Amino acid sequence: MKHIVVFTGAGISAESGLKTFRGSDGLWEGYRVEDVATPEAWKRDPERVQHFYNVRRKAVLEAKPNAAHLALVALEDKYRVTIVTQNIDDLHERAGSSRVLHLHGLITKAQSDINPSLTYPIAGSEIRMGECCELGSQLRPHVVWFGEPVPAMGTAIGICRQADIFIVVGTSLQVYPAAGLLDEIPVRAAKYFIDPQASTLSRLSDVTCVDDKATVAVPILVEKLMA
User: Fold this and answer.
1) Residue 104 appears among annotated catalytic residues
2) Residues 69, 92, 104, 142: which is the catalytic one?
3) Are 218 and 67 in contact (CB under 8 A)?
4) Between residues 32 and 28, which one has the greater pLDDT?
């Protein structure tokens, strides 16, 4: 059975109504990234950071998987499919994908402030200040912030090296270290890049670029691969 690796970014979630990470003005929903997505921001003002992610989490829980998420699930009828995502939402899982690796964490979980390997499900949409892990430390979002290591990178590299077909959906391919995964794709693998600006952004060789949004292009590609 051939192995399809799908690498997804903010563009696929945006079509479910979730804001992309950073707008053209450099802000994330009105906030400077440095104020809400770094360890320094957490040390400086943990309540502000906690509130920011509580609001984002509520939006994630209210969002629904779109046609692109659902189409990727159908590939599992014919292929071994692994999704490697930069997104912190759980839309791939709720769509029904069985193998999803989150490079940057999962907003629907909490983690210990002092031991990131201690993670916990969240009841509802909020982590409250004063809620602590088993070590007595404050719980924070299970999200990899700027300046923090990406623990899943080693696993992701191994997955990408096994790809027979590699599909990129809704990412600019500019954010490192995740963008470095492109260097791990086997030369023999068939490659597809779906994004409204795919032809402009692509730095892959021998790639089929589809300059369209995910909800349009992914179902079409899936139908082609299932034929």
Assistant:
1) yes
2) 104
3) yes
4) 32
